[in-house]
Amino acid sequence: MARAIAVSALALSCAAALGAQAELVTCGGVGSDARASLAAASKDANLALEFFAGKRGQFVADVDVTITPVGGGDAFSTTADGPLCFAHVAPGRYRIEADYRGATRLANATVGNTGQAHVAVGFPESVAEPDPGPISAEEKRQASTQ
User: Fold this and answer.
1) Would you say 93 and 109 are in contact if contact means Cβ atoms under 8 Å apart?
2) What is the pLDDT of residues 90-112, one digit of tens each?
3) Phi/psi at 91 (5° precision)
4) What is the pTM of this model?
């Protein structure tokens, strides 16, 4: 189980960057406070991104992300301040480029008229933070109640 990290939620208006194609990008952490903020901010999102590294699926932040419409259009770039990001984009196909500590991953997303497209981007073990050790009983208890 990945160790949860708390990162403050960040909301960026990217309407200018993607024209009318994107209304909002919200990135944040997975701690209980950040999760509550993200849930409220992401309810209208139709594209969800998740960033992790290593065998244990450790959540990572400070990922440089570029979202580009396939077939043309303006790209949007940002640094994800947390492992979860949500955007509202026009229906269509998108190329996601994510860079974390020099490791670049590419993914594709198809966003429809309904629902939410989810893209999980995994980075190699070589760029993951060192394993902080076993998860304590208290951490397990807290994770199971959230």
Assistant:
1) yes
2) 999 999 999 999 999 999 999 99
3) -55, 140
4) 0.74
User: Whose structure tokens read 């901010």?
Assistant: 41
- CA separation for the pair 74, 43 (Å, rounded): 24
Per residue, the 3-state secondary structure of the chain, as one string, reads: CCCCCCCCCEEECCCCCCHHHEEEEEEECCCHHHHHHHHHHCCCCCEEEEEEECCCCEECCCEEEEEEECCCCCCEEEEECCCEEEEEECCEEEEEEEEECCEEEEEEEEECCCCCEEEEEEECHHHCCCCCCCCCHHHHHHHHCC
Alpha-carbon distance of 80 to 78, in angstroms, equals 6
Sign of CA dihedral 45, 47, 48, 49: negative
Q: Which residue has the tokens 């397990």?
A: 140
Q: How far is CA 91 from the centre of its chain?
A: 19
| Amino acid at site 107 | A
For the chain, what is the radius of gyration of the CA atoms? 15
